Amino acid sequence: MQVDVIRILLVEDNPADARLVEWALSEVVGCRFDVIRAERLSEALQCLDGPRFDAILLDLSLPDSFGLDTISQIGIVAPTVPIVVLSGLLDDELAFEAVKGGAQDYLVKGQGDGYLIARSVRYAMERKRAEEALRESERMLEQAQRIAHVGHWVWDIASGHLCWSDEVYRIYGYQPQAFTPTYELFLAAVAVEDRQRMVDSIDASLRGRGPLAFEHGIVRTDGTLRTVEERGEMDFNAAGNPVRMRGTVQDVTTFKEVETELRRARDDLELRVEVRTAHLAEANRRLEHEVVQRTRTEEILRGERDFIAAVLDTVGALVVVLDGKGRIIRSNRACEQTTGYSFEEVRGKPVWEIFVAPDERRGVKQIFNQLLNVRSPSEYQNYWVTRSGERRMIAWSNTVLPARNGAAAHVIATGIDITDQRKAEEHERQRMLELAHVGRLSTMGEMATEIAHELNQPLTAIASYSDTCNRIMKLPTWNVDEVHEILGEISGQAHRAGEIIRRLRSFARKEDSQRASVDVNELVKDMVYLTEAEARWHDVTVLLELADRLPSVVADRILIEQVMINLVRNAIDVLGSDQSVQKRVLVQTWVNDRNMVEVAVSDTGPGLSADAVKRVFEPFYTTKSSGMGMGLSISQSIIESHDGELWVTSQPGQGATFGFVLPLETEVEVSNAV
Ligand code: ADP
Prior knowledge:
The protein is of the alpha+beta class and 674 residues long. It is 51% helix and 22% strand. The protein folds into four domains: 4-144, Response regulator (Rossmann fold); 150-251, 2-Layer Sandwich (Beta-Lactamase); 316-417, PAS domain (Beta-Lactamase, 2-Layer Sandwich); 426-667, Heat Shock Protein 90 (2-Layer Sandwich), CATH 3.30.565.10. Helix 17 runs antiparallel to helix 19.
């Protein structure tokens, strides 16, 4: 550092010596010395209270102080100001002691010029500054050691002298510098279990086997346990012998605790990470599995959906899916083909607005609402109107898919276009009616002889009664009552003939088929009456066993009469050509266990073979020379058109029973209503 002016405190009681110094310094070129002089120590101390001096030139022999004491007193007041001792020739030893006791240099009075003094002053200033810097650095080191809990030590091998820094004392639990440490004292503080290893480590270092690095426990005087780390290096002389060992000791207890804590936390964290990772891996695995499952399920569903769509489009039946409000949400190809409307055209529209004939809309809506409420499958038939205005009769079968998980109910309607079937059925019915009529006429033709005979009886009786009456009335006297009686007989016979003709006309008439409530017992009696003449002719007895209070059926009376007369005449026929003694026909009616009206005609004739039983209802099957073989075939068609059944049972040689069943009136009404 460049110093322009150096302030000197010259403490010298001898004026001559003082002047010599002042004069010498004034001679120095390049530097100016500002010298303040004090003659006594007290005066010097006063000066030092004022502005700072760069150096003090001090005579040790003052009137109020002497020797090293002077230095220490000045050192107390101005510890940072360098001191150059001025000594006399004889004071050389004292001056030397002064340097050891704190002065930076010394000059012998009267020797040397101003430059020597200036050089000494400057040297003293630099040395003082260096000392200060060193002291400061030591203070900082000390502070750093304290903060870091690191102490340092030196062990002189030859003398065994051990030196600890303050922090070493603190680490070991002592007051700094409270005693002079020894190797034994040090070992005594080392935890018992670590002691031998410590000795071995130091021994190894002494033998030059590398630096000391050792962690061990210590037991402080207050009983607390600490962990310290010792590090040391051995100095060897040129001969390779150990001279001293220098080292540090650090209290690593907190560090260790933190480290342990950290390790535990890390282990804990690792464990948690491991567990979490395992959980995540498991969740991931499950997710992957789910994704695979879902993809597979979706594929299956897609396949099923495509399959169902293909099936729906392939089936010939009409399929329409409706929502809870009757709107079309799906229809198939058959639907498109039958109606002429594409699915896109009808999608979302109420089914009755598009397809149902206006006169049937109300009814269809009602059925739809009933279906949603009742939720059981139902069947009905109605007309659909196609794009071209054609009416097609569709037989529907409906299924309700109930609302689930908040989804609205759906109705799946499957329909079959029965328009053509209906037409064919109607055609068939008409054909059957025609045939039946022809059959009736043929029957009447066959019965003509017997009926003529039957009519002949009343007509003969009428003629006979008329002749008698005529004869009586020619007598001169005749009894009016007798004539009345004969006229009554005539009237009775005429009614009988009229009744036969009425029934014949009724049987032979051709009318449109009309169904009405029919009393089967009455019908049976009428037909038996018509065949009475024929029965008598063949010497056959017809017996009736009719159920009381037989429920009525809904039927076309003429057609059922035809069936009845066929069965009774067949029985009379077979008995007529039979030579057996007993010729009897039994006609029975009853309600069977299926709650249907059943009629049976049994005879005592030869019966039928098993083959004949199988074939009797076939058209043109006959065993009669003049037979047509159509009677039973027509009868079967008639009964089946009434939802009934014509049957036969027979054992050869034991007669035959032909019968039919018809549903009761109430059942017919119910099934029509559905
Ligand atoms: P047809 O009377 O013109 O032969 P049907 O169809 O009425 O036609 O009868 C067919 C055949 O059934 C008869 O030819 C007869 O062989 C047999 N058959 C009908 N009724 C009886 C009966 N009660 N006993 C035995 N055979 C019968």
